[in-house]
Amino acid sequence: MKTTLRHAKIELVLHTLREGEGRALLLLHGLGESAAREDARWYPAWPGPIHALDFTGHGESTIPVGGGYAAEFLMADADAALAHLGAVTLCGRGLGAYVALLLAGSRPAEVTGAILCDGPGLAGGGSQPSTPTLPGIDPSDTGPPDPFALVELARDLRPTDYALEYVRQVEAFSELDRPLTVCAVQRPEWLQAVVDAPSVAEAPLDDALAYYARL
Fold first, then answer.
1. Which end of the chain is more exposed for a tag (fewer CB within 10 A), N or C?
2. What confidence category does residue 135 fall into, taking pLDDT thresholds of 50, 70 and 90?
3. Looking at residue 85, which CATH number applies to its domain?
């Protein structure tokens, strides 16, 4: 089942992978991916409903004209899904993991745990600005995924101090003892800083899902 949500001029497609009772698990995909790659059977430790969101420029969601992507814009995509679903547990891959951290810090009362996993776009453009270059984009490539999204989000910066501000927001306002769990093996600088925070746990994915499912 699919639901269309509105974020400004963007139509976002939210996929229901499994219906059920209780708090939902919201899956956030990696850079260049879509909800179409997800399967509820891959998350046996989660007993409730499972949904997956297509970010702007990905999957079946709108591809805007001219790019202009940033992780914060995708966070607003995920916030639209959060407003529709109510309280959720987030599970993000790659770029989706970074978006999950931003949303957990912005909506600590509504996000009952965020799980950060490996996937495309996890490192982004690093923690420091690099030499600017003009992106080479094929004008005949209309996506999905949007080629502007692939270029711009691959260069989107991940400053460690910025990521830690969202961790501090979670620590200050979440009622959970363990609001963030890292399952990723890859540890770019921003994620290593997050892992080193006292409120952040490390666990395999099934263990993390089982933990948040009990809350």
1. N
2. low
3. 3.40.50.1820
Instruction: Tally DSSP H helices, then E strands, for the chain.
Output: 6, 8
The confidence score (pLDDT) of residue 129 equals 72
- The DSSP 8-state label assigned to residue 13 in this structure reads E
pLDDT for residue 33 is more than 80: yes
Tokens representing residue 97 in the block = 């993991």
What residues make up the domain containing 12? 2-128+137-213
User: Could you identify the residue written with the tokens 């959970």?
Assistant: 176
Using alpha carbons, select from 5, 135, 134 the residue that is nearest to residue 79: 5
> φ, ψ for residue 177 (rounded to 5)?
-75, -30
Has residue 132 got a pLDDT over 70? Answer: no
Cβ pair 37, 81 in contact under 8 A: no
Read out DSSP for 125-174?
T-SS----------TT---SSPHHHHHHHHS----HHHHHHHHHHHHHH-
Distance between CA atoms of 77 and 138, rounded to whole angstroms? 26
3-state helix, strand, coil in the chain (%, to 5): 35, 20, 45
Q: If you search the block for the tokens 């407003």, which residue do you land on?
A: 83
Burial track 71-95 (b if 16+ CB lie within 10 A, e otherwise): bebbbbbbbbbbebbeebbbbbbbb
Number of folded domains that form the chain: 1
Cα-based angle 23, 53, 102 (whole degrees, multiple of 5): 80
Residue 156, amino acid: D
